[in-house]
Amino acid sequence: MKFLLLATLATAALALPSDPLSARQKKTCTNPKLRKDWAKATNAEKKSYIDAVLCLATKPSRLKVPTHSTLYDDFAWVHAKLTDPQRIHAEPVFLPWHRYFVQVYEDALHSCGYTGAAMYWDWTADWAAPSKAAVWNPVLGFGGNGSDSADGNGPLKLRIADGPFRNLRPTYWNGDVDPHWLSRDWAPAYPGQPELIGNAYSPSIMEEVFSWTEYERFWPALESSPHGGLHAGVGGGRGDMGPTSSPNDPIFFLHHAMVDKLWWEWQRADRDNRINAYKGMRNDGQEASLEDMMPMLKLAPDAKVKDYIDTEGGALCYKY
């Protein structure tokens, strides 16, 4: 590793709870928060969310790697370090780990004054023309594509040309320190290929994903084409959604909230049999278990899969 993760945090305000459940409720979830589609949120809700994201970039890093990074950067660093070597993709923990990760991000937004739940981008509704989606609004959205004419990044990255996040300057690119302007490189349309690789999350693809009734078949189908296609379509070769540091782009968390929503829908299509369904072979050759630990590299406490398998039980209390 190029950077050393500090064993202790700088202030008591950044101290992590010793029990992953202690920061949230341990009792029965009776009033779950509602996670909204960005396109259906109010203008006030959108502005509050955007302001909180920008606030994260003003808060000191919990990890201090490197010392000039911010809480905003911590999410990209953790994701990159757990992707190389691979510990959170291409194995059963992909869905519960990212469910927990999105919750940690929501908690961080709350520390910046946001009072709502995480939101999602329903890219299944926008697959035919994803560049027209409400999430790319330049005022109450995430801005649009990167541009060769946008200054500052050179030929290897495309700085976004507009929006409230145009001046965000992430610290990491993949797992390396490489400060740059937030970048996107949308995959263009061409004959047989819609823009932003929209055919990777088309109705026919989603029907195929949901045709699988076993978790060990469902999660790879969801992770591969819909999830991976959206990352590649938005990030391209010169955007932040492509590398392992993809949480650099705030759209990452709306994307993964949508992935989580699809898992939530699959679970509730046959709740009795699916709410605790969790099977498959881990990358270390062991069979996956609800007792498996999900690492968070001190951004938040490591947690067991079983505590994040149900959005209305364990450590969680939300619905879609």
UniProtKB/TrEMBL annotation:
Keyword Lipid metabolism: no
Top-level taxon: Eukaryota
Cited Pfam families: Tyrosinase
Domain Tyrosinase copper-binding: 89-106, 249-260
Signal peptide positions (record): 1-15
Record bears the keyword Metal-binding: yes
GO molecular function, one term: metal ion binding
Assigned keywords, A-Z: Copper, Metal-binding, Monooxygenase, Oxidoreductase, Signal
Membrane spanning stretches: none
Listed name of the protein: Monooxygenase
Organism: Immersiella caudata
